[in-house]
Every structure is written in C-alpha cells, then in structure tokens.
Design brief:
237 residues; Rossmann fold; 2 domains; six-stranded mixed beta sheet; four-stranded antiparallel beta sheet; 9 helices; 10 strands; ABC_transporter-like_ATP-bd; ATP binding
C-alpha cells in the first residue's frame, strides 16, 4: 500500500519548550489513522507541521512520496484548533468564499455541506450555530477542495452521539473512495470504531504505531493506552 504521509524524526521547539522530539508516523493511503496522546504530547504541533502552518526544526515530512511543499499541501484539507468561522456569514457564504479563494467550483462547496448534513442550516449565520454545527462546517470547508488527505484535530468535539456516528460514517465512506484521514482524538471509543491504525505520541515522540489490537492490553484499549503512557514516562503517571 502506498504512503499518504510519512513523518521522520520531526522535532520542534516552541517558546523554549520541546513540542516534538523525533516524532515518526506513517499514514497509508486510504486509511483512517488515529493520532493519540495525552495533552501536550505534540499532536496538534505535528498536524500543523503537516499542514504547513509551522516549520519543523528537524526531521522530514513527505506527502504522497514527495517532500512537503506548497504544491503537495494543496492536496491536504485541514481542520486544526477550531473552524475559524466568520460569525456574520452563513454556511453557504463560507463555502462560496472559500471556493473562490481555492479556485474550485462553488458546487463543490454545496456537496461538502450536503455530506455533513448542513444544507438545512446553510442560510443561518454561524453566530447562531451550536458548537457541533460549527465543527461540521469546519469539516465541510476542509473537504471543499476534494483533498487526498484530511487532517482533522478533534473533529467530534461538541457533537452529540448522532453527530459522532455521522462523522465516523463520513470518514469511513471517504476511506472507501481513497481519501486518507489523519485524525486526533481523546475519545478512545471513537478511535476504536473509526481508525485502521493509530500512532501514540508521548512527550513529543512516538511511543507506539500500529493496529489498535496491538495497543489494547487484555482487550482493554483504555488500560493499554494508559499503560503505554505510563511506561513512556518512565513509570510515573
């Protein structure tokens, strides 16, 4: 299977603090890959590096077998640290503006809204949207340019159980047509239902990468995760 993303030995210091320390992950084309780790482990920093929002101090990142560049990043759709919406615009106006900025047909935006179940609220200002609705619109904008790779930071944040199920089904549907997703989450049950493989970051480095059943200790994913984090921290919680 070809690789959509490979990060090798990625390091980054932010404000004198080591955010990434030799992080390494390999995301295969067409899979849903879960990026796990405690707060401060470096998940968002790694996603920003993949998206080109910051430059690593060390290491390499490749997309679809090519070094990270402005050209390769055009094939990436991102939702990192919130959707960043304009409160005075509605959902339809958001996708129209973004379609113009990205040079893609406006109809693609309508399709993205439809896939996220947003058409019925497309004319409502985002200032009236619930948190879950704003995240849905953020994912729609990430899908707008029909990317080959999606990078989603906590995409089920604020969603009710129905919304979480819809996002899970959307990611699996996208995978079935070859779209790759790198998704971070603190919700282990959602990861177990959605992801093909996972990578676990601890203190900026990769503590585990592989199938979920390799992480679950005694068939208990939560126990296996906490045990891994504890061992990576030298046995201290």
């Amino acid at each position: 299977m070809t690789e959509a993303l490979r990060a090798t030995g990625v390091g980054k210091t932010l404000g004198g603090t080591t955010a990434l320390d030799g992080a390494e992950i390999t995301v295969r084309s067409g899979e849903v890959y879960g990026l796990l780790g405690p707060n401060g482990a470096g998940k968002t920093t790694l996603m920003k590096a993949v998206a080109g929002l910051l430059s690593p101090d060390a290491g390499e990142i490749a997309l679809f077998g090519r070094p990270l560049s402005d050209r390769s990043r055009r094939e990436v759709g991102t939702l990192i640290e919130g959707p960043g919406l304009w409160p005075h615009l509605n959902a339809l106006e958001h996708v129209t503006v973004h379609a113009q900025l990205r040079g893609v047909p406006e109809e693609w935006g309508h399709e993205a809204l439809r896939s996220l179940g947003m058409l019925d609220v497309a004319h409502r200002r985002t200032s009236t949207h619930s948190l879950g609705m704003r995240w849905r619109l953020g994912i729609a904008l990430a899908l707008l340019a029909r990317p080959r790779l999606l990078v989603l930071d906590e995409p089920t944040n604020g969603l009710d159980p129905v919304g979480m199920r819809d996002i899970r089904e959307l990611l699996r549907d996208l995978a079935s047509v070859g779209v790759t997703t790198l998704v971070s989450s603190h919700q282990l049950d959602q990861v177990a239902r959605t992801c093909d493989r996972v990578g676990v970051l601890v203190a900026g480095g990769t503590a585990y990468e592989g199938p979920l059943d390799g992480l679950a200790g005694d068939n208990d994913l939560e126990a296996g995760f906490f045990d891994l984090v504890t061992r990576a921290h030298g046995g201290v919680r």
